[in-house]
Amino acid sequence: MPKAKGKGRRHKYSYNLNRKRLYRSARRRAAPRIACSHIRHAWDRSKSVAQNLAEMGLSEDPNKALPIPKKPMGMEEESNGQQPGKKIVRKPYVVNEMEYEASLPEKKSNTLSRDLIDYVRYMIQNHGENYKEMARDEKNYYQDTPKQIKRKINVYKNFYPEEYKDFIASLKPEKMDVQ
């Protein structure tokens, strides 16, 4: 196959182009990507990252925020109540909002697919606790081993414990009627 036209040609270097200035201006314009909305709204683009975070009461370096003591625990010096270089927090509402958001309970968004739920219910309904028989069933399309099927059933039990109990309770009368 022939090469693409113009690929083997040597490219000319432009001596008149100042690449340093182009690179600096592109970096200066780029603002940091901030994920937290509270920080994004309180951010001042005219200040540095360190200044912005200090105003919000946050730290840019975790090692400076919680320094590792170099002296043994019992040998601490007493201070006169003032710490040198203490920065004033001008935007405490940012930290307060972040703490409030972190204290909210997290929603459980874990769910199983409808196909897996139907598969597990079918297997339990037709085979009970016999996992070897489940592995030989014609509906076992993915050719799961007995241990894999057992694991899927246990996942279903853990995700939907009430639904599983109701399902098992509904199966017991059916088996009694058959005998």
From TrEMBL:
Pfam families per UniProt: Nop16 (PF09420)
Matches recorded under InterPro entries: Ribosome_biogenesis_Nop16
Region: Disordered, residue numbers: 1-30
Keyword Zinc included in the entry's annotation: no
Keywords on record: Nucleus
Biological process annotations from GO: ribosomal large subunit biogenesis
Subcellular location(s) per record: Nucleus, Nucleolus
Any one cellular-component term (Gene Ontology): nucleolus
Family indicated by similarity: Belongs to the NOP16 family.
Protein name stated in the entry: Nucleolar protein 16
Organism: Smithornis capensis
